[in-house]
Amino acid sequence: xxxxxxxxxxxxxxxxxxxxxxxxxxxxxxxxxxxxxxxxxxxxxxxxxxxxxxxxxxxxxxxxxxxxxxxxxxxxxxxxxxxxxxxxxxxxxxxxxxxxxxxxxxxxxxxxxxxxxxxxxxxxxxxxxxxxxxxxxxxxxxxxxxxxxxxx
Length: 152
Fold this sequence. Notes:
The chain is α+β, with helices and mostly antiparallel strands. 21% of the residues lie in helices and 28% in strands. The chain is elongated. β1 (33-34), α3 (39-48) and β2 (54-58) form a beta-alpha-beta unit. The protein has helices spanning 2-6, 16-25, 39-48, 122-128, and strands at 33-34, 54-58, 68-72, 83-84, 88-94, 97-98, 105-111, 129-131, 138-146. The strands form two sheets. It has a five-stranded antiparallel beta sheet with strand order 6-5-7-9-8. The chain has a four-stranded mixed beta sheet with strand order 1-2-3-4, with no helix packed on it.
């Protein structure tokens, strides 16, 4: 027990389900979330753990897990998925066209992390992985919906 009492998590990653348990346990750990994070649990964690850098990481497995990141500030109203990581592009698309600010559409991702397709599933690959109409390479249709917010 003595070693455990002296241990502190310096960096880590966990799913939101595990993170919610950590947020309410009073730990001094510093998890990084993924998928949809609970505003309530993140607020509680931030209040109990001052000066903790907490980052929301969004991304499908088809794009090497992380596609975007957002550093969650001390005070927040909501937790967006953030901005694309290096060598990654994110598009919001409706009817094959790029959407403007606040216009909802499907998230498409492109860049060096995008897979070439699904092994032994050519029909699904053809549906989800397309020639990038906005640039080079392949784009992956995530099926997730989103919209751009104006960055101040």
